[in-house]
Each structure stands twice: as C-alpha cells, then as structure tokens.
Write a structure and sequence with these properties.
heterodimer, A: alpha+beta, Aldehyde Oxidoreductase, domain 4, 27 strands, B: 159 residues, DNA polymerase, domain 1, 5-stranded mixed β-sheet, 5 strands, globular
C-alpha cells in the first residue's frame, strides 16, 4: 500500500459540504469557550494597568488590597521567573511590567479574590506610584532624531548605523538594478502612504482558568490559537516544567492572529500558585483593545516605473512599521509581500521595525501584507490611469507565474495568480455598469502560507468508527475539513469520524493555528495518519488471508486482494477488521509527526464597487467579489467563509477602523462603540470565486486560504474610493473626515 | 454589601438567586445560573453577544441588572430549541455555515428569532439593520443573512 500518492480527482467526500461537527453545540449555547469554564472554589482575577504611555514604576503598594478578606493573592513582576533572556524576556516584560510601563494598559500587578466584583474593587486599592516619561506613538515621529528612546539597546545587528535607537530591526531584499529599471520606464510614479493600527476584533475577549500547585503541576484552560505554545511560554515564565503543565484549548471565539500570543495565562497561574486555588481571568473589551496585540501601523514610500505598454520596469518600496514597545513588527513580511504578484527584473524593498509606546503588535491575518498591497496597488492603479490602461490587463501582463523569480527571492512553484486575474476579468462584476458617484477598484494580494510542526493521532474503534486527535485549535471549521480528509482516505462516512482538539498531554508539539496552516498541515497529517492506519488494516487482512501485505489494497473502506495473482478472497470492511482487532494484534491507530514544508503560496484578486458621498465623506461598499486560489477546496462553503470574512475585515480596515491615541499617549477608542467594526447594515453580500490550482506540496493540492483574503481589500477599496471621489486617498482608514480633507485639499488646489 | 433576592423565570424554569446590586443580568445568567450560552463580548451593549429576551423584548443582558429580572420571563439561547428539536433558525445556521467561531451565534439567534416573531417576512435590508447590533467578525454576515432569509421563507410556508 503506497503512502505518498497524490490524489487529484475522483473525490467522494472532499469537495462536498457536510455540516460541521461543532454545529449543534454552537447553535444551542453548549459549546464551551474560554470564559465558560468553572472550577470548584475558584477565584476571579483582575489586572492593574498603567494609565501612562511611558512611565517609570517607582513603587507598588498592595497592602490595602491584601487586607481585604476576599483577596487571596496579589502578584507583581517579582512573582515570575528571573533571568529570562531573548523572546521569553520580551513576553514576560509584556505580560507584567518590570521597572517601566511601556504603554497605556501595560499590566503592572494582578489580584485574585472570591468574586469578580471583589477582584475589581481590590485592583482599585493597589496604589502604583509612577514617574511619567516622554512618549511617542507615531511611527515617523518615533524614528525622528528628537524621539524619546523607548528601550536603549533593543536594536539587533541588522540595523545600519546612524538610525534612531527606536529602529530595532532592518530588512533589505530584491534583485536587479532599480536605477537602470527606472531609466527604462516611460512613466515613474513615486508616492507615500500611511495605515493606522487596527485590531483583529475577535468578539471573545481573552479568558482562562488556571491552576498551579506547589508541586509544580498545573492545568490551564484557555482560548488560544496554540495551546502548545501557551504551555511552553507559561512554563518558562513561571519557572516550571512544560510537561507538568497541561493546557487544554477551549472553543475559540475568533483569533485572526491575535490569539497566537500569551497575555493572561501566566498571570492566572502565578495567582493560583500563590493562593493555592484555581483562578479565572477574563479580559474586558477595553483591556483587549488597550493591552493585547493590534497590528502595526505603517508609513510607506513606493516608486514604480512602467512602459507605455504597461510593463513594469522597476519597483522600490520603503516600509516603516511600528509594532509597539517590543521588536517584532512584521516589516520583512510587508517588504517581501509588496511586489510578490509581479514578475520583475528590478526590485528593491527595505523595512524598518520601529518601537513606540503602544502595545506589542500581534499577527493579524497575513501580518504585514495588506498594508504593502495598499501602497503598491495604489501606485499601480495611478500608473494605469495615467497611461490609459486596463488595471487587470496590466496586472496580467506583469503577473508572477510558475518559474518567476519572486521579489523576495525564491522561484515560484505552481501558483494561481494568472488564473485569479483571468477569472476576475471574465466575472460579470468587472464589466457591470457603475452608477453615478460610484467607483470600481481591483487589487491583487499575496501571502506565503505556512506548514509547521504537526502531530496527529487517529484511533479506530471496534465499531468501525474513527477518532482523529489534532493539536491545532479550530478557528475556521477545520474539524469538518480534517474529518472529510480522513473519511476520504479510510472510505467510511464523514459522520463516523470525530475530530477533537487534544490537550498538550495527548500529542507531540503542534505549532499554533497560524499561517493558514491547519487545513494544509494538519490535513496532510490526517491523510498520512489515515494511510498509516490503512497500512495496518491491510496487514491484518493479509494475515487473515495468509498472503503478503503488499498484495492487499484499500478501496472504498475495504481491504481487497490487489489482483488475481494475490488470491481470491472476499473484501473485508474496516468495521470487520476493527471488530476483531483485539484478537488480531491489538489496537489500530495511525500517527503522523513531522514538519510539512510544502505550504503553497496563495494569490487573490478582488473587485469592489464603492459609492462616496461628497458631502459627508461617507463611503458605502455596494458590490464585492473575491477571487482566490484555494489549491483544492476541501469544504467549499468554509473556504467561501474565509474569503468573505477576510474581505469584511479588510473593508473595516480600509474605511473605519483605527487606533486613535491622544496627545497624552492614551488610547481614546477602546470600546466597540468607538472602534467601529463593520456591522450587517454596512456590507453587501460578498461574492466568491474559488480557483483551484493544486499545491504540489499537499496530497490533495490544498493551499491555506485564511489569510490571503485580507491582502487585497485595503488596496481594492482605496482604488474604488479614489475613482469614485476623484482624488487619491493615501491614508487608511478612509474615514469620512479623511475623505473630506482630501476633497477639500483638491478643491483648494 | 447585602445581596438582593430575585425570583424570576428563565427558559420556562422558575429560578431564584441572590445577587450583588451591581451584577448584570448577564453576570447572573452565567455565574449564578450556569447558563453560559449567553456571551460577553464587550460589556457595553455594542456587540449583542449577550442578547436575550425579557418578557419578549430583545435586550443586551450586559446592560440590565440582575435585580431587574424580578418577576420577569427571560429567554436565552438555551431556550430556543424545543427539547431535542432544533429551532428552524438553528438548523439553517448549521446548514448555511452561518457561523465560524460561533461566539456571536447565540446572540444572533436570539435577536433573529425576535425579529421573525415581529416580522415573518423581512427584506434583506430589514434583516441587516435589525442585526446591526450584533457584531460578527468571522463571516462578513453574508451567510448569516442568507440563512435568516431562507428560514423566514420556510417558516412562512410552514405556517
């Protein structure tokens, strides 16, 4: 029985649209999310946070809080591990401030008490004495000569000399000679763009229930995209052994990258260790905005040269990203994604990672890529306009394809950009007439996708059913897709498979559910684990028949002799073999542990029609079409859901959402009323076209789909709005005041 | 602080509880009555994840005090199905994949059921504006709106 064959057609379950296994739980309120766990005798925690953007912590007086009978533990930085280095130190510094509060909302102390109200009351009694220091929250200002230094010595060796100490990492890449390329151009456009920070805006605030005993053994229940990472980080921050800490991932109420990071779990564990009781810690919405991981904000310069015919001769980009008070803004992704859709002879990109007094940025769906697309695709659109060329035809003329040397280095394998562009061009949306006051925009987008460490286990039951255990929290319906792949391989009905997100004690290490990796990597693992189980099933049949294992094949849920030479035997079903497995050699299970490295990159093309009210500056998206390469859509409905969700988040980012900091460096809009994400009445239906250009790195051709969908919208909407308003918008979000300002500036010449 | 004794009805069950005067109906449902289907997304009435009906009126349970439930009749997501038979909206939400993470789903189901009881034949625009107080970050609302429109059509045919 061959293990490594690819399957590209003749699917029975893959490509169908069965109901999700967690559907009933989620429509009845039974599904247990982060805040839905309760333990006997548990305490409730609250965190004391800095009201200053940047301040030295002079003293923390916890005596009044500790004097309350309801208060069972108070922790500060002194209650965590000492001597940490590298990223562990950075995480601890963010989880609980040391000498200095680095942003508005930075945790300074925490308290555990008998009720949530008692904990909140006690937190108010903890007196922290601060010495405010100068602060900076804007990326360009943070790089200026007179900017306050946020953390001296934080820069790594990549940073060229002469830059401000707040520039902590530097990236440069590209190929060819851009100066020569610009000389060959008939038109060169150079412009600058900015995007403000946004939040993933998951509706479920971070929540956990934790217990840690004096024996160093502990349990954590939490909403996370990666419980194995929670285990690793908590063990380091608490100074305990990873294996003694068992972490279970709850149902997760949205993440989009924002729950790849550890914020509250170590705090709950430290409180539990001190109080010798379980501790529940749930963030408020305001804490989520102030003190989790929003995106980086950006400042970008783009220069592109084009011939009269539309061929791009050279492209150059400078990308400055502030990612809060810690290194890690994804500027290299911004730089590397910027020109990836284009087949270029001359390209150069530079990135700066800049510190500011804001919370440490976290991943948000294709981190760094949407901003780059906004800037680059805006300039491409201006070039098309200036030269009177069709924007999709120009993108087709310059599109990356198999064999193209990517702007970020490697040569592309099989990719589907051209197919998405052609599907977009041929879609009725692209040729539909526009009404008065409307504009149309298009954009491409690119994301790498990721494989990562993966471990799964597939156990067969005596009744012929199967239990798949995976270690990647289900953030988009992956339990359904993984079950479909197992059903396809085993040849039993989808309903006979139960997929569980297993805890950290059950499987080998699994990387976080990030990088659009789950359907790709856990899917590949589920297929390989199924084939492992099938091989064992075939061996049992071979033993029963007294023939070689190689003479048995697996077809549609049955072991069969491979041909007339193998002998003549009645096929045996999975259920029949499983029913006697105890007597024929013991339990049958399949496994897979490896790091799949063939995650195929992914491209999308979006078309959007927008209507701008000149008087108010209000924009309405009236029509939206997503075209994206999924490689192979395992569950097409959930693939559509990823396309639509990414587009909707992109619409929010483009038009409304932004972190607004006051002169005092404090966040001014930390609730959903003021940080307005798209509501149902803001949006049209979102049409989707699934393109399938198989990824050679997956047995069925799967490419990750979750992130690429947010790459084109910022640019596509900016192009639509600029066409509708008759003025180029260069600063996101294109909120009504910014559109009015742009119109006024144009009117005043 | 002394507790308030409250007698009320939740999903058809008579219940009593003691609550702090500052505790919201949401706090009480989740922490005292173990009805965790109702979710807290914001605590400020902006996200609708905590939607319940009180005497058939749709409210954000985070904006109402537990003590105010005295003598009222409260319905939460746990009270939507008829025993083991799911409500048509629940069936349709699963079929249409009108949920991804599912955290907003309880509130959206409660709100939508309230809409269809008032208006069995809403337009797409009416559904969108009725649900404008229920944030969903995963779906872009497309499949939610389609599920609601299709359920409404089915329920009209059945009645």
């Amino acid at each position: 029985m061959a293990m490594d064959h690819d399957k590209t057609n003749g699917f029975k379950v893959v490509g169908t649209r069965p109901n999700r296994p967690d559907g009933v739980d989620k429509v009845t309120g039974r599904a247990k999310f982060g805040a839905d766990a309760y333990a006997p005798g548990m305490l409730h925690a609250a965190i004391v946070r800095s009201p200053h953007a940047h301040a030295r912590i002079l003293s923390i007086d916890t005596s009044k809080a500790e004097a309350l009978s309801s208060v069972k533990a108070v922790v500060t930085r002194a209650d965590f591990a000492e001597g940490l280095t590298g990223e562990n130190w950075n995480i601890l510094e963010n989880v609980m401030a040391g000498d200095t509060a680095l942003y508005d909302g930075h945790a300074v102390a925490a308290v555990a008490a008998t009720t949530p109200l008692a904990a909140r009351d006690a937190a108010k009694l903890i007196k922290v004495e601060y010495e405010p220091m100068p602060h900076v929250t804007d990326v360009d200002k943070a790089m200026a000569a007179d900017a306050p230094i946020i953390r001296a010595g934080a820069a790594d060796s990549s940073v060229p000399s002469g830059l401000h100490a707040n520039v902590v990492r530097y990236h440069e890449s590209g190929h060819g000679d851009v100066a020569t390329g610009f000389d060959e151009a008939d038109v060169v456009i150079e412009d600058s763009f900015k995007t403000e920070a946004t939040h993933q805006g998951y509706i479920e605030p971070h929540a956990c229930l934790a217990q840690l005993g004096p024996d160093g053994k502990g349990e954590v229940w939490c909403c996370t995209q990666g419980h194995f990472n929670v285990q690793k980080v908590c063990a380091a921050l608490l100074g305990t052994d990873s294996s003694q800490l068992r972490v279970t991932a709850s149902e997760i109420g949205g993440g989009f990258g924002g729950k790849t990071v550890v914020f509250i779990e170590p705090v709950a564990l430290a409180l539990s260790r001190k109080a010798s009781r379980s501790v529940k810690l749930v963030m408020s919405r305001s804490e989520v905005f102030r003190a989790t991981g929003p995106t980086a904000s950006t400042s970008m310069d783009i220069k592109i040269g084009m011939t009269r015919e539309g061929r791009i001769t050279a492209a150059e980009g400078i990308f400055r990203l502030q990612g809060g008070a810690f290194p890690g803004a994804p500027m290299e992704f911004t730089a590397m994604c910027a020109f990836a859709p284009y087949d270029l002879n001359n390209v150069r990109q530079i990135g700066y990672d800049v510190l500011s007094n804001r919370p440490k940025q976290a991943a948000y769906r294709a981190p760094g890529s949407p901003m780059a697309a906004f800037a680059v695709e805006s300039v491409v659109d201006e070039l098309c306009k200036k030269l009177g060329l069709d924007p999709l035809e120009v993108r087709l003329m310059n599109a990356s394809k198999e064999g193209t040397k990517a702007s970020y280095g490697p040569r592309f394998d099989r990719i589907g950009l051209v197919e998405t562009l052609e599907a977009a061009r041929d879609h009725p949306h692209y040729s539909a007439p526009l009404a008065e006051g409307q504009g149309r925009g298009v954009s491409c987008g690119f994301w790498f996708n990721h494989g990562g460490e993966t471990s799964v286990s597939l156990a067969l039951s005596e009744d012929g059913t199967a239990a798949l255990s995976v270690g990647t929290p289900d953030i988009g319906g992956s339990r359904a897709a993984l079950g479909q792949m197992v059903a396809e391989e085993l040849g039993i009905p989808y309903e006979k498979i139960r997929t569980t997100i297993a805890d950290t004690a059950t499987l080998g290490y699994n990387e976080i559910s990030h990088g659009s990796r789950v359907t790709y990597a856990s899917g590949l693992a589920a297929i390989k684990a199924s084939r492992d189980a099938v091989q064992k099933l075939c061996a049992r049949a071979a033993a029963k028949w007294g023939i070689d294992e190689e003479a048995v094949v697996w077809e549609d849920g049955y072991a069969k002799p491979s041909g007339p030479n193998a002998g003549s035997f009645e096929p045996i079903s999975l259920a029949e073999i499983a029913s006697t497995m105890g007597q024929t050699g013991g339990p049958i299970a399949g496994h897979f542990e490896a790091t799949p490295e063939g995650a195929g990159v992914s491209f999308a093309t979006h078309i959007v029609d927008a209507e701008v009210d000149d008087e108010t500056g209000q924009t309405k998206v009236v029509r939206y079409t997503v075209v994206q390469d999924a490689g192979k859509a395992i569950h097409p409905t959930y693939v559509e859901g990823q396309f639509q969700g990414g587009a909707a988040q992109g619409i929010g980012w483009a038009l409304n959402e932004e972190y607004i900091y006051g002169e005092d460096g404090r966040l001014q809009n930390s609730i959903f009323l003021d940080y307005r994400i798209p509501v149902a009445s803001d949006l049209p239906m979102i049409d989707t076209v699934i393109v399938e250009v198989p990824n050679p790195g997956h047995p069925y051709g799967v490419r990750g789909v979750g992130e690429t969908s947010i790459c084109p919208p910022l640019a596509a909407i900016a192009n639509a709005v600029s066409n509708a308003a008759g003025v180029r918008l260069k600063h996101l979000p294109m909120s009504p005041p910014r559109i009015r300002e742009a119109l006024d500036q144009q009117a005043n010449g | 602080m002394s507790m308030i004794h409250v007698t009320t009805n939740v999903n058809g069950d008579d219940v009593e509880f003691l609550c702090d005067p500052r505790e919201t109906l949401l706090d009480v449902l989740r922490d005292k009555l173990a009805l965790t289907g109702t979710k807290e997304g914001c605590g400020t009435g902006d996200c609708g994840a905590c939607s319940v009906t009180v005497d058939d009126r749709l409210v954000c349970s985070c904006l109402m005090l537990g003590a105010e439930a005295e003598g009222k009749s409260v319905t939460t997501v746990e009270g939507i199905a008829d025993g083991e038979n799911l409500h048509p909206l629940q069936e349709k939400f699963i079929e249409y994949a009108a949920l991804q993470c599912g955290i907003c789903t309880p509130g959206i189901l409660v709100a939508t059921k309230a809409l269809l009881e008032k208006n069995p034949d809403p337009t797409e625009t009416q559904v969108r504006y009725w649900l404008a107080g229920n944030l969903c970050r995963c779906t872009g609302y497309d499949k939610i709106i389609r599920a609601v429109m299709d359920t409404a059509a089915d329920m009209r045919k059945a009645s």
